[in-house]
Amino acid sequence: MSGTHEPIVHAIYDLSTGTWQYIVADPDTRRAAIIDPVLDFDNTTSRIATGSADALLQKVALEGYEVDLLLETHLHADHISAAFYLREALRQRQSYAPQCCIGSGIEKMQRVFGDRYGVDEDEWFHAFDRTWADGDSFQIGGLQVTVLHLPGHTPDHIGYQIGSNVFCGDSIFNPDLGSARCDFPSGSAVALWNSMQRLLSLPPDYKLYTGHDYPPAGRLSEEGESKPQPYATVQEHKSSNKHVKMGVLEAEFVELRTTRDGSLREPKLMHEALQFNIRAGRMPKQTADGERFVRLPLRLPESLTAV
């Protein structure tokens, strides 16, 4: 079955990481995919919990969906993916396990960070069931999905176009935030500019669903609270995106993005997240004592570097 009709979209916001998670479903067949799911992680105690992921499972059950795919937009450095946890939980509920999927550039990133953190290749090689390249297409029930390669924030970054909706991860932020950082390995402000221009070339009514939102003080709900929003239209971005609206030149954007990236701290969960996410959210191997570890780099003063 194939089709171009519109999906049902459930946008679920994870407050602790500012992440948008999406359940996307075909209204006719009730087949679904989950995009960019989050595991809860407290880096002060190193405790992992599944509350956010379990809420996704509850929503899936409530709506009567069968989940075929767990879709990542890129290798996240700011939260731990719940993809593997959800795959195993859904395996128990359904007669099959959904596939964990990501962009085809992931193997290069897995090797870079596997080497950096000393993660054995057998823990990350083939961690994902499928990888997608630019222009690939697949189905969620009767929904046609087209893959868009959107590098810049990370080189492996992809988006998923479904009808008039694009789930574009960190390749563009809401208009009052602008864009995501590009200072990770093989990130590129020029590549991000080109990816955003690709998105802005879509029809003006298309919705661009972002991967994160950090509502600024001026964006308030009717109750006076900061209000995260999952998407803005192409036209809204062209009119008011603070980094790439009409009239902004590539050189201006590249200078702005590069300067800003030079002033940013690394994400607080970066080292933990990367070690989990190259494994598609799997836990590190147990030691002989039954414990699991991740590695964290030390920042040494010059007086200790020779010790």
Automatic annotation (TrEMBL):
Q: Which SUPFAM superfamilies does this entry report, sorted A to Z?
A: Metallo-hydrolase/oxidoreductase
Q: Does the keyword Secreted apply?
A: no
Pfam families cross-referenced by the UniProt entry: Lactamase_B
Name all Metallo-beta-lactamase domain ranges: 18-212
Q: Which InterPro entries match?
A: Metallo-B-lactamas, Mito_Persulfide_Diox, POD-like_MBL-fold, RibonucZ/Hydroxyglut_hydro
One GO MF annotation is: sulfur dioxygenase activity
Single Gene Ontology BP term?
A: hydrogen sulfide metabolic process
Q: Which residues form the signal peptide?
A: none
What UniProt keywords apply to this chain's record, in alphabetical order? Answer: Metal-binding
* Protein name, per record: Metallo-beta-lactamase domain-containing protein
To which species is this protein native?
Answer: Extremus antarcticus
